[in-house]
Design brief:
Elements lengths: L12 E5 L5 H8 L12 E6 L10 E2 L6 E2 L12
Antiparallel strand pairs: 1-2, 3-4
Length: 80
């Protein structure tokens, strides 16, 4: 098994949940009608990439339990 995973695109919000979300909940999350705070009971981890980070090697998640780092080639692009 390798860890050579690549993404071509944009990520503004990344959340992993313990439970499946309904189509309605997904739409509300996508449209930002529901704001994820990190206090949700079924949120495993989550990151908001709507602003640049101070340290690309230590990006804390909303729950305070995990951190991520950016690898490879990337560019911060302001989203409208």
């Amino acid at each position: 098994m390798t860890n050579d995973w690549k993404l071509s695109g944009y990520i503004k919000h990344f959340h992993l949940w313990k439970s499946a979300k309904s189509q309605g909940e997904i739409k509300k999350l996508m449209n930002e009608e529901i704001r994820v705070t990190g206090q949700e009971d079924d949120l495993v981890c989550g990151w908001e990439f709507d602003a640049t980070v101070e340290d690309d090697t230590n990006i804390p998640d909303l729950t305070g339990k995990y951190s991520a780092k950016l690898l490879g080639e990337y560019k911060w692009i302001p989203l409208e």
